[in-house]
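Quick one:
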Amino acid sequence: MHVHTPLLPPTAISHSLSLPFLSATATNLLTTTCSTLDIYTILPSQKLSLIASYPLSGTPTALANIALPNTLSGGHAVLLGTRDAKISLIEWDPENWRVRTVSIHYYEGESPAAFGVGARDVESILTVDPESRCAALKFGARGLAILPFRSYGDDEVAEEGLDAEMAEPTALKRTSTHPPTTTEEVEGEKITPYSPSFTLPLTSLDPSLQHPVHLAFLHEYREPTFGILSSPNNPSLALSLEQGHGRDSLTYSVYTLDLSQRASTNLLTVSRLPADLWKVVPLPLPVGGALLLGTNEIIHVDQNGKVSAVAVNEFALRSGASGGGVGMADQSSLHLKLEGCELVPLDPKTGELLLVLNDGTLAVLGFKLAGRNVGGLTVTKVERQHGGLCHASAPSCVSALEGGGLLFIGSEDGNSSLLSWRKEAMGLSRKRSHAQMLDQPPTAVEGGEDGEEGEVEDVDEDDLYAPTAESVRRSASANLQSAVDTGAGYRFEVRDELRGLGPVNGFCLGKGEKAGTSSEKLELVAAVGRGRGSKLAFLNREIVAEEVVGTNTKGLEGVKDAWRIRVRSKDTTEEAEEAVYEEMLFVYDGEVTKPYRTNSADGTLVEVEDTDFESEGATLFMGTLGNDGIVVQARKNEVRTYDAGLGLSQIIPMTDDEGDQELGVVGTSFADPYLLVLRDDSSVVVLKVDEAGEVEPLDLEGSTLGQGRWVSGCVFAGSGELLGGPAAWLLNGDGGLQVFALPGLEMVWSAPTLPFLSPVLMSDAKERRGGKVQVTEVLVAELGVAEEGRGTYLVVRTAVDDLVLYEPFWYLPAGTTTGGSGWEGLRFRKVPSTYVPRYDEGLDSEGGERPAALRAVRVGGRRCVVIPGSRVGLIVKEVVGMPRVLGVRTGGKVRTFVEASTAEGGFGVVDKEGKVREFRLPGDASYETGWSVRFLPLSLPMDGGGEKVMEVRFVAFHEKRGVYVVAACWDVDFHMPAEEEGEGKGVVEDISLRPQVPQYSLHLLSATTHEIIQSVAMPYAETITSMKIMPLEVSEHTHEQRSMVVVGTATIRGEDLPAKGALTVLDIIDVVPDPDRPESGVKLQAVSREETKGAVTALEAFGDCGLVGTAQGQKIMLRGLKEDGSCLPVAFLDSQTYITTLRTFGRSGLWLAGDAWKGLWFGGFIEEPYKLSVLGKSRTQMEVMAAEFLPFDGLLYIVVVDAEMDLHVLQYDPEDAKTLSGQRLLHRGSFHLGDFPTPGGGMLVLPSVLAPMGEQTVVTNGDTNGHDGEKPAQPEPQRLFQVLTSFQSGAIGLLTPLDETTYRRLSALQTQLTSLLEHAGGLNPRAYRAALGSEGRGGVVDGALVQRIGELGAARRAEVLGRAGADGWTLRSDLEIIGGGGLSYL
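Output:
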């Protein structure tokens, strides 16, 4: 009984699509990861801005654009393909501001008898007709599903028999938003956007379509027409040498579909195509036809079957590929590798395409056009200085954004990039004479460093309409020169990036100064990415603030509160460019408030004396108005204003209407030129700076604002007219929200249903009975960094300290207009959040008072909202992310938060000792994932200049030395060693495009400065398969143990030679440091190196005896160091297979071993004598990718992730009769993850600082929240352990064991939420999480689904909790534990 919860979302982008989605004129980008769907818009600055993100209960396989006649938003719809042959039709719902599922079509239940193997075993291919007439899904081995769509004029065509092009475009009428299962009625007839789909085997089109490779719909055909690449035999390069299997084994065929008759017609067939072709790319005009991509060549087939081809490396010519019987143009000197490349249109006028290669480099594919005929293809690399290397990782998808000029390159191996491109006009070249064009042979194409011989198309002299030979040669020459100029004329530049954490190659826990000032805090360091996009990622669950040493506040002590403001000198003008500002700090010590001014000469603080400033008594808040020219002091019963020199200007007493009774100030809200003051009788006063510079209260007599009684409120002006101008947002006693325009005081908007916390907040919503929550605070604030990327949010705080965020949108019924601003049509959409309030013991120590109010602040150029408390939190937002709540790590408890006086400044805090400490946010950190993430690329200088970026594969932390040991590599050419050439089948032939192997090296990286201290190169072609730092016994006499670096390697010697391995042990010793680099006082030194017959595939420390366990060849060995430097085996176990995973559990002597064939081995180890024994095994045929121990409640569980992306929970229980005395591990649960873990070391068991769920004590914040004075539960001897798992998509998950009561509660909650929540694409979470063969009985709860309970309204949430037998406080405790609250040390 367990629960799996994601801590970090996946960031590796698998698919992308550009289309007008939110409206007919919008430019949007849709991206998918392995389990999310994200929607972006393009800002005027050519940056991406996230609109919405949705979890998907399925693995996306395709995104396709479909233009339906009438969508709710007026934009296009999207076909989302998911694993197991499912298609979801989705559109944007502007009324509710979310994705709406129109329909879902699934074909996984189709009989595989006619279609070959099932849909799960073969990747599906989704393609859409360019005219949006139908979509086709190839599933299984040979299954084809056709989904027709209705288009403009379908009814008229059916009635009158007219040509489709002559029919008037009459849109289908869809006026309501029914559930996806309903249809719409048009004149009494039910109609859907699609017609009934049908399936058929591809062999019904042609019996030779036995093994389809790829298919796609083509452009410029009257009926839906697709091209398909197939083979009568299973295509394989290994079969090319066998008799009867030629090298040219593929066939390209074009079929047109008759949707009404469900029939097809073959238009053309091109045979004898190279066997390495793998993709069909349809081309629009002016080129037309289709491109066939191979690993070594590119082939174009036009609508008449004419073939043009170009070879991009020498293997296309060596293999003898003919390209459909036509010789290939030779551009083999380019040395391009087309595996995994992506193509995207660049210039629609010329038809040129951008080729993004697997290493991230860019090339331009041009065409030699002669009218509608293609005379040849040219490929030109984009030079480095022109942006050819601006994208660093392998592409997974490429999309050209609407409007041109922008390209998006998605990647699963690193960052995804938004590129801008432009085409520069080339200089005029000398024109060749007519004689030269007729007599001279075609010139070589200058493509940077490469060339290609141009070819002139043969002219049919008998064709009356054929062009003359002279015109053909002129056109060919012009197009040839145009192709050359085009390739050299493109310029690319990165405009924005989506940071990616995938794939995670390995991770460890470390400690450094940048992890925080507390010695108890750790950081998660991961090696992420591949190729040039690889880097080290430093991850923390909190914002790691960097303390500014030597600030001018160092001498201040005994401080209770402090405020820092910026004041404009009264001797300057109001223009910001000419104004002179000075910083002032006001410090309250519990008795007096002292003003300080910063000395401009030396930056010291100088106390300001002999002024009119009232320092006696408590100060509640300090601020400025009038363009920072008026200093405002809010006191207990009055508001005072001062000029820049702190000369008293006004005293505004807080009295009742009769002026007889003084009223206390409860809260203030500044929005220049307005100041809102909330008083203790629940009344408000609104002050405004008039034209004369005086602060005067607005006349509230007779207004609703003046007569009402308010619990909380704020004034918000914003950066424009986004929300209709300046307004006061007030919360009444019933929890309703009312908005009053300033200075007119008329009520312009209200939300009486705010206490219901509904998913969509609107002014005209009907009130319900019951289900309310007590709302105590509202705040309207901007969040974000860049001005145009900021968003306005409504922050709602409840009596139990829950935070609910709403984002505004506008919706007006059809027939009206809206500009996306103002009060008319304003609505709010709830923002999904997993925030759980943390227990704050500081509230109990002060008598259970309510926490301080939320406050909008500026921190390091960011607009944030501060959550006060002893552990300060911030609501932050990145442009490409949703708002996130993160704690701020300041090295201790905090009394109050001090905002910086400038937008670019940091912030300060007053700690528990009464000291003012200054901090700043790290400039290289990002927070869109909900964690603080900092990246560090590793590179080494090259001999010829420049830097060589390395791919980081392994990382480990040496605690005693305070350094990280990093294993990195880069690709080098492979050459067979001379002494081993005779062992194989002969000497490798001389080729210029050689295979690549990784060249590894070890690096010492300082944990404080993040600088490389030392680099040690590994032997050539020796691949590091495992690296760990473990305690080893270095002396047989003293039995001294020392932390050593242990490296396991495998030597690559060619595919027909047996592998060799080595075990290398290194020590980190002290050396004399460089005076300029104090961290350089350590060095790696080799202690032992043992050659092995088989590859060393896994390493692990065994027990506390100082031995290292190795999986080498088909054995598991225990080795120990000797005095002479040797590392000899002391025990072994014959596994008869290659072990990929080896784990031990502390000092218990228990170990795990996993392989790809026999499954999981569980065993024990004893010392005297040294012996390895097998205690139990899992079921066979389990391809183990990662495994880890998980003890709980006196039981031992084993967590395994297999190659089907299924998580299995096994238990060792020798007392159970089913286990045959423990020889069989009991299967206790399974859960489909939908993502591959990091192989080998992707799982780590960690202790939790929280008690197990059954021992939790319910605690709340303050007496007003129902806290009865109990203290938090004291830690018990029994500890809770959790398993942290890293994935290839960059995600990080957490597996938590549950007791039976908690499991039943969360399982019931999961069942309720499955049926109540809206699931994007209409996908079923229960079916998605069911592992293969589990039939839905998983035993593991989906924590991501449970965390979405906040998306429900208050009434529905209370109903769901009641059905599940839970309450709010129990749920909060559960969510805190499963969400990683016990990993607060990260």
